[in-house]
Write a structure and sequence with these properties.
The chain is of the alpha+beta class and 615 residues long. The strands form seven sheets. Strands 5, 6, 7, 8, 9, 10, 11, 14 and 17 form a nine-stranded antiparallel β-sheet that branches. The protein has a five-stranded mixed β-sheet with strand order 19-20-21-23-22, with helices on both faces. Strands 24-25-26-30-27 form a five-stranded mixed β-sheet, with helices on both faces.
Length: 615
């Protein structure tokens, strides 16, 4: 179906056995989030909460809980949307086969936003923020947040819907110093379109008008997170994927979506901020309280029988993992057009997305040389780390595909391929004192930290160890006796448990003792990567644990060490890499559910209860 609103999607999913209704009253304070997480973890259906404590509105979650359900929702427009994006990425396709792409062109034309009359024709009525389901997901969250917002702003220099930005920036509805019903917090990170609009408005000394749409056809929600080709509006994409034009009007100078379930309008004034957060975020930790723009609420609208969509973000995988998978399927080829020579880029979900990138590129600079080394892929690495949100990454592992097919999505195989080929004395490249993700607290301050590139090309150089080397098993009684319990994560990577991190001065001393001892005992290059952690059993239990701990708890410039580490004309080199992924005092706390709430929601999952078949 081509849904005109969220209600149609809910009813369609229910008809196909992909949605359950909970009629019992549920509490938006932690309880709804706990139910959602249990259902998501079990691969369960979407959930419609019909009786939300403190609100007359229904709420729905887990709409995008599986890739299969997400593609089912867009089943009638998926192929056309892929074709339009492919054509935007490579316009020559349309010139080479114009008749083949007539339908694609018509689909794109029909997706253009459609302006409607406001006023009496507006299909919404006024409410207040306090009427909404005020959903709090994690115990230490600063308040209730909109977790699936579509935040709309326009370019002050070029007003109009075709020069607008639609992004998913979390919105804090209450708590902290916000005056309920009059103020909300808008948290946006660097490299976001709304920031450019606010900067221009501030230069003009005027407030930025903002509209926050919630709900509507699911295509509108997805459009707010899409990295689209240059020149394609998010609202055009929303219409394209929905199969219906995005309908809007202006009321009091604010853009109002006629398809949304809720709309919050307001203004961000120059220099006005409030403490925003904490918020349990997608890296698996709280993002802490910081000053972010405050929006003075103008009006709040709801459609009759509106449904409030929400999700819970936390350590991956979560529901937003499906967003990443959908985006990859829709735009996977876009990166090849944007950065010629790049074959694949994978933001690794298990590591929190932004901290870790895997990439494959061409290596064509010196085909006449017998011994290959990274050359073109280093140029590509710079392009990747200078492109949009990819520039927020801390770790980039990039390989040149040679004589065997390689995929960044086969994580253990890809890492093994690099570790077998990398020259640790030549192929590690740092970027220090630079920008990282706002949500990443492993760096030296908000938005600040470092990056490192591991590049590999050419023939295999080493066999990787398939068991823990002996010297890593006998550290007790040596100068490195504060380390122990070594465990194999995968071939070539071993984790070692350390004592709790105290300070970087102490860490320097500890790591020097460890590296000196391992060098003295003759650790060879079959173990090129050693990870120091707080709990080696946890770290080695799953590949996901290794990726999450290592790449969310380390800052390359501060936490990478090496055996026989040295500088060769300002280039850092070593024989074996050691990454200190212990928890640091300045890092944000991890997300831990409320145990009492977890026990309380079990009543819905016992045999015979509405969610009794979900485990």
């Amino acid at each position: 179906m081509k849904y005109r609103n969220l209600e149609e999607c809910v009813l369609d999913l229910e008809r196909h056995g992909q949605l359950v209704r909970i009629k019992e009253q549920v509490d938006p304070h932690l309880e709804m989030a706990a139910i959602h997480m249990k259902v998501y973890e079990a691969g369960g259906p979407a959930v419609l909460f019909e009786n939300v404590k403190g609100s007359r509105f229904r709420a729905v979650s887990n709409l995008f809980g599986t890739l299969e359900r997400s593609k089912f929702i867009f089943r009638e427009t998926w192929e056309e949307t892929q074709n339009v994006i492919a054509l935007r990425n490579d316009p020559m396709k349309g010139l080479k086969a114009p008749w083949k792409h007539i339908e694609t062109g018509l689909a794109a034309w029909n997706a253009l936003p459609a302006k409607k009359n406001g006023g009496a024709g507006l299909p919404l009525h006024e409410i207040q923020i306090s009427d909404l389901p005020l959903i709090k997901s994690w115990p230490d969250d600063g308040g209730a947040f909109v977790t699936l917002p579509q935040v709309y702003s326009e370019d002050p220099d070029k007003p109009g819907i075709m020069n607008s930005n639609l992004g998913m920036y979390r919105v804090q509805l209450n708590g902290n110093d916000y005056e309920l019903n009059k103020e909300v917090g808008i948290h946006y990170q660097i490299h976001r379109g709304i920031g450019i609009h606010q900067a221009k408005a501030t230069q003009k000394g005027m407030p930025l008008k903002v509209s926050c749409f919630i709900g509507g056809p699911p295509a509108h929600t997805l459009s707010a997170v899409m990295p689209l080709p240059e020149g394609m509006s998010e609202l055009t994409f929303a219409g394209l994927l929905a199969g219906h034009r995005f309908r809007y009007s202006y009321v009091d100078g604010f853009c109002i979506s006629h398809d949304a379930d809720f709309v919050i309008t307001g203004e961000i004034f120059p220099g006005e901020t409030r403490p925003e957060g904490p918020f349990g975020d997608h890296l698996g930790y709280y993002s802490l309280t910081h000053p972010f723009p405050v929006m003075r609420v103008h009006k709040v609208y709801a459609r009759p029988n509106a449904i409030y969509p929400f999700t819970v973000v936390g350590r991956p995988p979560q529901e937003d993992t499906s967003f990443g998978e959908l985006i990859h399927e829709l735009t996977g080829g876009a990166i090849k057009q944007e950065i010629p020579g790049v074959k694949e880029v994978h933001a690794v979900d298990a590591a929190g997305v932004h901290p870790l990138l895997f990439a494959i590129g061409s290596e064509r600079y010196t085909p006449y040389q017998k011994v290959k080394q990274p050359a073109e892929i280093l140029t590509l690495a710079n392009r990747i780390l200078g492109t949009g949100q990819l520039s927020l990454a801390k770790y980039l592992f990039i390989a040149a595909e040679e004589n065997e097919p390689l995929s960044t999505h086969h994580i253990e195989t890809f890492l093994g391929y690099i570790l077998e080929r990398i020259d640790l004395g030549r192929d590690i490249h740092f970027y220090t004192n630079t920008t990282i993700d706002t949500l990443d607290y492993s760096g030296t301050g908000l938005n600040t930290g470092s990056k490192v590139v591991f590049a590999a090309a050419g023939e295999k150089k080493r066999e990787l160890c398939r068991e823990v080397p002996e010297c890593l098993q006998r550290l007790q009684g040596t100068q490195a006796q504060s380390f122990g319990q070594a465990r194999l994560i995968m071939p070539g990577i071993v984790t070692v448990q350390g004592t709790p991190f105290i300070s970087y001065d102490e860490a320097e001393r500890e790591m020097k003792a460890l590296c000196d001892e391992l060098q003295k005992q003759g650790l060879d290059d079959s173990c090129p990567l050693i990870i120091i952690g707080d709990n080696s059993e946890f770290m080695s239990a799953t590949l996901g644990n290794f990726l999450w701990v290592t790449f969310t708890r380390s800052n390359p410039s501060h936490d990478m060490y090496g055996l026989n580490s040295r500088y060769e004309f300002k280039h850092w080199a070593c024989d074996n890499v050691v990454i200190d992924a212990r928890t640091k005092p300045h890092q944000a706390p991890p997300l831990i559910p409320d145990a009492e709430v977890e026990r309380h929601v079990e009543r819905l999952f016992v045999p015979g209860a509405i969610l009794g078949g979900i485990k």
